[in-house]
Write a structure and sequence with these properties.
The protein is 40% helix and 21% strand. The protein is an alpha/beta fold and 217 residues long. The protein has one domain (11-214). The strands form 2 sheets. Strands 2-1-3-4-7 form a 5-stranded mixed beta sheet, with helices on both faces. Strand 1 (11-16), helix 1 (19-32) and strand 2 (35-40) form a beta-alpha-beta unit. Helix 2 runs parallel beside helix 4 (79-97). The mean pLDDT is 90.
């Protein structure tokens, strides 16, 4: 008698640096029943260098892709941190060129709070701290960052992922990934990431790469 076909799971790993990102991905994971392992990395003591160290330590076993979500503001006025960010880019490119577990780098600039506010149709280029208090109805930015239900808050009513993707699609992307999907092989191929220097310091995010991958298989 033949053995039953084993159902493959969509296992992803997400590395993020802040509570907001962690809570957001956790909420998405629960709503969509995705097999995502989230690794929150404290960058306060080590910046991008510490982030890269943690990525290297994490196993690639049974992982379709690793997503690295980081804010770009650290590199803007600190040449040392910019070099460390470039080291992350180089590492991801080596992994992708070797056809190992895809490493998909997402850089949010200035930070994930900008991405979060972009879920609202009322958001333009306002100060994000003010918008979080006045439009998203939080008492403070700290309350927003610690809200475990932030994903639900950002995707209900007039707020949505579609709003966010529409707004950010037109913004500059400092990181470019070329992602090819092979549904029949249940695999992902990534070329890059490529650094787009003229977009550095401009508000934007390539977080569409994250949603494109998790929606494709």
């Amino acid at each position: 008698m033949s053995r039953p076909t084993r159902k493959l799971k969509k296992n992803y790993k997400v590395f993020c640096e802040g509570d907001t990102e962690y809570n957001y991905i956790e909420g998405l994971k629960k709503q969509r029943t995705l097999h995502i392992k989230i690794k929150a990395i404290d960058m306060d003591g080590g910046g991008y260098k510490n982030f890269l160290k943690k990525i290297k330590q994490e196993s690639e076993a049974n992982c379709l892709a690793k997503f690295i979500l980081i804010d770009g503001d650290r590199a803007l006025n600190d040449n040392k941190e910019k070099k460390n960010l470039m080291d992350i880019i180089k590492y991801c490119k080596v992994q992708n060129d070797s056809k190992r577990c895809p490493h998909i780098l997402i850089v949010n600039h200035p930070d994930f709070e900008y991405v979060a506010c972009s879920h609202s149709t009322h958001f333009g280029e306002q100060n994000t701290s003010v918008f979080i208090r006045d439009q998203l109805n939080y008492n403070s930015v700290d309350e927003f960052k610690s809200d475990v239900n932030v994903y639900t808050k950002l995707t209900k009513g007039d707020n949505s992922i579609d709003n966010m993707l529409y707004l950010l699609k037109a913004k500059p992307h400092v990181i470019k990934n070329v992602i090819k999907k092979a549904k029949e092989q249940f695999s992902i191929l990534v070329t890059g990431p490529t650094w787009v220097d003229e977009a550095f310091g401009k508000k934007g995010s390539n977080i569409e790469d994250f949603f494109g991958v998790i929606n494709m298989l």
